[in-house]
């Protein structure tokens, strides 16, 4: 019986609460020391460590069933974490299942924010570090490289990355459907609170260059404008200068309407050919709802944005089945390529240990 | 160079390729949930080449630009629209424009092929030996091609506008270009169409003023009404008097109106009996 196997063990956001993930997270020094420790394990032929805010995972090629336990023990020891408690949250997958998990993680199918692409970069970095340190070999090199290719395929053949799933990004995406590029769009932020700031930053991250902040407290507007590299506008000038802006983000805590129909109507008369995108993120609402009837004015409130986010999320979730099917197909093909290499890591045939695929202490399995 | 097949065979092939582009685009959009992109563009390009071959054969047969009957006028209009699409589509990468263009081109070309009576009276050398009148006619019909593409971008604008106002942004609405891109493209096409038609009228006017030329008043009036409508729309839009949505609506009407005006142009010419097909075709 072959006891050489490919494994992934660790803890992910699926079963591990944030408070536990905090205790399990590795800092740079800890990760380095742990890698040295793992490199010294005689049965561990190849390994790579993936550590993000949502997961800590060890991918390895082992020459014996006890090796994964040794990796676990080394990690728990480093983090001063009770191994019995760790077993409650543990992810433990072997061979083809481990490969499928690798592809799914790279594709963002296993991410907390489904379809997010940041994990792809983090995984590439983890692989590059392991490769540079000489911790990977023929199995993991092939596995990671093929997983990256498969992840790209999942993203292009499914819609798991389409549609924004945060309110701020959904607003920015909407602006794109009106203005195309945002480089020359002039944005007015009314309200200097956290929500407005988040939306303003989302606009800036998508290339918006002209941002103006207005708040009831001018000093707060100036403060936020300085932070964002924007300019400040006295709040009372908002109606008079409304025509200068293409996008207006309202996120104040004002109890009454701050942009009435008449003000928007007057502004549109001064800029009839340019569309005006109004985003009302305030509760109670800042913008009089009837402005939506105006020609060339597009008004979206919190409920509208929340509905778009929910639709996008549902659309992404509907695509996961398709994505997992591709990942499974790729993992099967990849496993056929590396199975012989993995089996060849088997040491003396006298070992009589647990079968590959067996998991200890009811771990997270497929 | 001698091309195989008759002109109508090439034009049938072109219509089939445009239709294939439309069907392929529909499958990609409604079944796979994404625009077809390059595949549609390729099918349209192949259709365009086939149509070019067909029109070249017809042009050789009639001894000039093939604008002698309704069939030829509609074929030339579709060809003009595709010419502009191939330039505009590649430059501005307006998502879904290829899909809509394939739909329009297949409709216009197939309809013109399905009515044999439209092609019953092929007439040779309708422009006599006056190259200016031929240029005038070719430019005027080419401008209708620009109005065809303008109608498509206007339709896309109205769909995008509807999706934004009604807050339905998912599905295939998500592949429509931004409202500003569509507006700007519409404005450019309107300006191009109006300029080409204006130039066509200026070229024609040079010949009309000659005493030996017989001017068909009905044709001149209809063409001038179309040109006046295009210039009026352009002016109102540039001055900000006509909002983008109403302008798009008017541009959408402009193309069918221009197309219908061809019906008044064609019968106004004296009917000449169809001549036997030349051996070259």
Greatest chain-chain contact: A-B, 23 and 23 residues
- Regions with little confidence, pLDDT below 50 for 5+ residues of chain A: 348-366
Strand order of the largest sheet of chain A: 7-6-5-8-9-10
Rounded mean pLDDT score of chain B: 84
| Termini separation of chain B | 12 Å
| Proportion in β-strands of chain A | 15-25%
The arrangement of helices and strands of chain A along the chain is EHHEEHHEHHHHEHEHEEHEEH
Structural class of chain B: mainly alpha
Helix content of chain B: over 70%
Helix content of chain A: 40-55%
* Category by helix and strand content of chain A: alpha/beta
The radius of gyration computed from the alpha-carbon positions of chain B, rounded to a whole number of angstroms, is: 19 Å
Outline of chain A, from the CA principal axes? elongated
Strand content bin of chain B? under 5%
Question: How would you sum up the major sheet of chain B?
Answer: none
Question: What is the tally of beta strands of chain B?
Answer: 0
Q: What's the main sheet of chain A like?
A: 6 strands, parallel
**Uncertain spans of chain B:** 270-281
């Amino acid at each position: 019986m072959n006891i050489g196997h490919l494994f992934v063990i660790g803890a992910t956001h699926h079963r591990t609460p944030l408070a536990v993930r905090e205790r399990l997270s590795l800092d740079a020094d800890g990760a380095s020391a742990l890698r040295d420790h793992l490199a010294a394990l005689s049965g561990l032929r190849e390994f790579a460590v993936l550590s993000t805010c949502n997961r800590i995972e060890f991918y390895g090629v082992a020459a014996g069933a006890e090796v994964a336990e040794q990796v676990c023990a080394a990690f728990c020891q480093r983090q001063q974490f009770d191994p019995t408690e760790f077993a409650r949250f543990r992810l433990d997958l072997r061979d083809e299942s481990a490969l499928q998990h690798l592809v799914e993680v790279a594709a963002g199918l296993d991410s907390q924010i489904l379809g997010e692409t940041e994990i792809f970069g983090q995984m590439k970095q983890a692989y590059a570090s392991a490769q540079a340190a000489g911790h990977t070999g023929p199995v993991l090199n092939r596995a990671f490289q093929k997983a990256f290719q498969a992840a790209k395929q999942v993203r292009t053949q499914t819609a798991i990355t389409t549609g924004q799933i945060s309110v701020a990004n959904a607003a920015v995406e909407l602006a794109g459907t009106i203005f195309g590029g945002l480089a020359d769009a002039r944005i007015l932020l009314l309200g200097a609170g956290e929500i407005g700031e988040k939306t303003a930053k989302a606009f800036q991250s998508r290339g918006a260059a002209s941002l103006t902040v207005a708040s009831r407290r001018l000093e707060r507007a100036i403060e936020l404008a300085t932070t964002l590299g924007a300019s400040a506008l006295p709040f009372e000038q908002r109606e008079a200068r409304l025509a200068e802006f293409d996008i207006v983000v309202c996120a104040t805590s004002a109890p009454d309407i701050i942009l009435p129909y008449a003000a928007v109507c007057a502004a549109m008369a001064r800029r009839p050919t340019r569309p005006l995108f109004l985003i009302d993120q305030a509760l109670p609402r800042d913008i009089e709802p009837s402005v939506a009837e105006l020609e060339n004015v597009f008004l979206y409130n919190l409920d509208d944005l929340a509905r778009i986010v929910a639709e996008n999320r549902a659309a992404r979730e509907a695509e996961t089945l398709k994505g997992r099917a591709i990942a499974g197909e790729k993992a099967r093909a990849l496993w056929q390529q590396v199975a012989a290499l993995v089996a060849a890591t088997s040491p003396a045939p006298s070992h009589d240990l647990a079968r590959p695929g067996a998991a200890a202490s009811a771990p997270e399995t497929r | 160079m001698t091309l195989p097949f008759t002109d109508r065979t090439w034009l049938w092939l072109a219509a089939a390729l445009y239709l294939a582009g439309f069907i392929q685009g529909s499958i990609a959009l409604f079944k796979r949930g994404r625009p077809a992109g390059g595949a549609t563009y390729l099918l349209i390009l192949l259709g365009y080449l086939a149509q070019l071959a067909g029109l070249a054969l017809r042009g050789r047969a009639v001894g000039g630009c093939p604008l002698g009957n309704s069939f030829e006028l509609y074929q030339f209009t579709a060809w003009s629209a595709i010419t502009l699409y191939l330039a505009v589509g590649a430059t501005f990468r307006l998502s879904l424009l290829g899909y809509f263009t394939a739909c329009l081109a297949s409709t216009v070309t197939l309809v013109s092929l399905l009515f044999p009576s439209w092609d019953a009276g092929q007439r040779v050398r309708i422009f006599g030996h006056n190259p200016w009148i031929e240029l005038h006619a070719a430019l005027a019909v080419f401008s209708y091609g620009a109005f065809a593409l303008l109608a498509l971008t206007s339709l896309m604008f109205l769909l995008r506008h509807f999706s934004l106002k009604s807050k339905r942004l998912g599905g295939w609405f998500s592949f429509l270009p931004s409202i500003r891109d569509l507006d700007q493209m519409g404005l450019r096409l309107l300006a191009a169409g109006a300029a080409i038609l204006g130039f066509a009228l200026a070229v024609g006017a040079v010949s009309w003023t000659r005493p030996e030329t017989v001017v068909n008043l009905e044709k001149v009036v209809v063409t001038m009404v179309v040109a006046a409508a295009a210039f009026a729309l352009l002016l109102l839009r540039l001055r900000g008097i006509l909002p983008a949505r109403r302008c798009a609506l008017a541009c959408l009407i402009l193309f069918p109106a221009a197309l219908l005006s061809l019906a008044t142009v064609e019968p106004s010419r004296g009917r000449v009996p169809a001549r036997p097909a030349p051996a070259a075709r």
